[in-house]
Amino acid sequence: MGWRAVEGLVAGDMVLTFDNGFREVTAVESAKIWTGDGLAPQDHWLVEMPANTLGNRTTLRLPPQQGVMVESDAAELLYGDPFSVIPALALEALPGVSRLPVRAKTRCVTLRFAEEEVVFSREGGLLHCPSSRDLLDLDGDRPQYEMLPLTLARDIVETLTLQEARASELCPVI
């Protein structure tokens, strides 16, 4: 049916995933990011990525702990895989990325699947979604996508910044 806003998805909808084609959404959760009065403390503020930060076509606003899949040469050298899932908070080191204050009414929508997935967003990002099983923690299986700790994720983002700088030196804009 084409791209739809995450708020319009319901359990049973099929969503395109990074590794597994179309998968059925098992649950859609919507929760307030901040339940207090006024502005949330800064650690709750959204990470705002302007268009073209990581291939996204429009601005993305993500919770700081939202998993984002990035591709980097450093990840391939360190982990044997060019793709890494990092917390959105690590992206604040990229040019133009900033934090956006959160008010009490701001909501976050989480898609859940039978197994954890990385999904394509309409804006062009690759976002990690937990499995319904994660809620129950029924088994001790290792997750398919391990999110890098913030310190390692920041190292990956630093290399992305260096790669971008080198690429702009090699390909000047005319």
TrEMBL record:
InterPro entries recorded:
Hedgehog/Intein_dom (IPR028992)
Q: Name one Pfam family in it.
A: Hint_2
Record-annotated Hedgehog/Intein (Hint) domain positions: 2-121
Q: What is this protein called?
A: Hedgehog/Intein (Hint) domain-containing protein
Naturally occurring in which organism (per UniProt): Roseovarius nubinhibens (strain ATCC BAA-591 / DSM 15170 / ISM)
